[in-house]
TrEMBL record:
<keyword id="KW-0808">Transferase</keyword>
<keyword id="KW-0444">Lipid biosynthesis</keyword>
<comment type="function">
    <text>Transfers the gamma-phosphate of ATP to the 4'-position of a tetraacyldisaccharide 1-phosphate intermediate (termed DS-1-P) to form tetraacyldisaccharide 1,4'-bis-phosphate (lipid IVA).</text>
</comment>
<keyword id="KW-0441">Lipid A biosynthesis</keyword>
<protein>
    <recommendedName>
        <fullName>Tetraacyldisaccharide 4'-kinase</fullName>
        <ecNumber>2.7.1.130</ecNumber>
    </recommendedName>
</protein>
<dbReference type="GO" id="GO:0009029">
    <property type="term" value="F:lipid-A 4'-kinase activity"/>
</dbReference>
<dbReference type="InterPro" id="IPR027417">
    <property type="entry name" value="P-loop_NTPase"/>
</dbReference>
<comment type="pathway">
    <text>Glycolipid biosynthesis; lipid IV(A) biosynthesis; lipid IV(A) from (3R)-3-hydroxytetradecanoyl-[acyl-carrier-protein] and UDP-N-acetyl-alpha-D-glucosamine: step 6/6.</text>
</comment>
<keyword id="KW-0418">Kinase</keyword>
<keyword id="KW-0443">Lipid metabolism</keyword>
<dbReference type="Pfam" id="PF02606">
    <property type="entry name" value="LpxK"/>
</dbReference>
<keyword id="KW-0067">ATP-binding</keyword>
<dbReference type="InterPro" id="IPR003758">
    <property type="entry name" value="LpxK"/>
</dbReference>
<comment type="similarity">
    <text>Belongs to the LpxK family.</text>
</comment>
<feature type="binding site">
    <location>
        <begin position="53"/>
        <end position="60"/>
    </location>
    <ligand>
        <name>ATP</name>
    </ligand>
</feature>
<keyword id="KW-0547">Nucleotide-binding</keyword>
Length: 321
């Protein structure tokens, strides 16, 4: 929605609906806060990685980064997710690196693949946590998304912001992209800006690519070795992926932006030159292995999170073991 990032006559028309959205959200959160509506307290600490705005902000790389950081501290970590886009016949569902992304969702499968930790998906997050804890003991649970899911009590909150889009026009849905007001950031334990610092930032995250992986052979090539390529992206902000490739001096002859959580089919790729590499995100790749071509490559990224608040933030977890 382009008008989410400006002030126009459309936003003015939608302001009454944004006020109604705020009122319903405010009352709902107050009901949970005063225990009028019941909420679930897990027997282990819960960390929420979420955002204020709709669309991709970079939560999944943060979840992967956090899992890896906590594993280095010797903590046993499980991950839960709503599993947006999944089509499982049963929930909760334990997701592994081998789970069909159509069943488990692209992001949960990616997290399981990159971290090798158990991931459980369900719209009912309590059920997801309980199924994980039935399998084995965990020192803590990370929830991929769920900042506004106040039915689940949490111990620590991380909010991720896309630096390019920020908080848009600062308005709530539907006049703007926000689920909660910007003042909500003051209650988070850590605010991560994906790309560069802004007025809300505690720390900055960079997504660094180092190599590309062939979907058919598994071969790895340095990303700098690609000079001309096509590219597709079915993520919240496809232009970020294309700009990252161009910043590496890769000339993009063809690009195609798809919807976030796009379900791919082979016929969607027929227009791309088979004699030229086709680059895609790792999140997209998990849905394309079944019909991949020899010229298809995905580009893993590693989250590098820097700032003076990173170390004291990670120190909070030492007492959870």
């Amino acid at each position: 929605m382009q008008f989410w990032y400006s002030h126009s006559w459309v936003t003015c028309l939608l302001l009454p609906f944004s006020f109604l959205f705020w009122l319903i959200s405010y009352v709902r959160r107050a009901l949970f806060k005063h225990n009028i509506l019941s909420s679930y307290r897990a027997p282990v600490p819960v960390v929420i990685v979420g955002n204020l705005s709709v669309g991709g902000n970079g939560k999944t790389p943060v979840v992967i980064w956090l899992v890896q950081q906590l594993q280095q501290q010797g903590l046993k970590v499980g991950v839960i997710s709503r599993g947006y886009g999944s089509q499982s016949n049963t929930y909760p569902l334990l997701v592994t690196a081998q789970t069909d992304p159509l069943q488990g969702g692209d992001e949960p499968v990616l997290i399981a693949k990159r971290t090798q930790v158990p991931v459980c998906i369900s719209p009912n997050r309590q059920q997801a946590i309980e199924l994980l804890l039935q399998q084995q003991h965990y020192d803590l649970i990370i929830s991929d998304d769920g900042l506004q899911h106040y039915k689940l009590q949490r111990d620590i909150e991380i909010v991720v912001i896309d630096a390019q889009r920020g908080l848009g026009n600062g308005l709530l849905l539907p006049a703007g992209p926000l689920r909660e007001l910007p003042s909500r950031l003051q209650q988070a334990d850590l605010v991560i800006s994906n790309g560069e610092s802004n007025q809300y930032t505690d720390v900055v995250m960079r997504l660094e690519p180092h190599y590309a992986v062939n979907l058919v052979t598994g071969e790895k090539r340095l990303i700098a070795s690609f000079k001309v390529a096509s590219a597709i992206a079915g993520i919240g902000n496809p232009q970020r992926f294309f700009m990252m490739l161009q910043s590496l001096n890769i000339q993009l002859s063809q690009t195609q932006a798809f919807q976030d959580h796009q379900k791919f089919e082979a016929n969607q790729f027929v227009k791309f030159d088979k004699n030229r590499p086709l680059l895609m995100t790792e999140k997209d790749a998990v849905k394309c292995f079944a019909f991949a071509q020899p010229n298809w490559w995905y580009v893993p990224v590693d989250a590098v999170i820097e700032g003076e608040k990173v170390r004291p933030f990670l120190a909070k977890f030492r007492s959870t073991k």
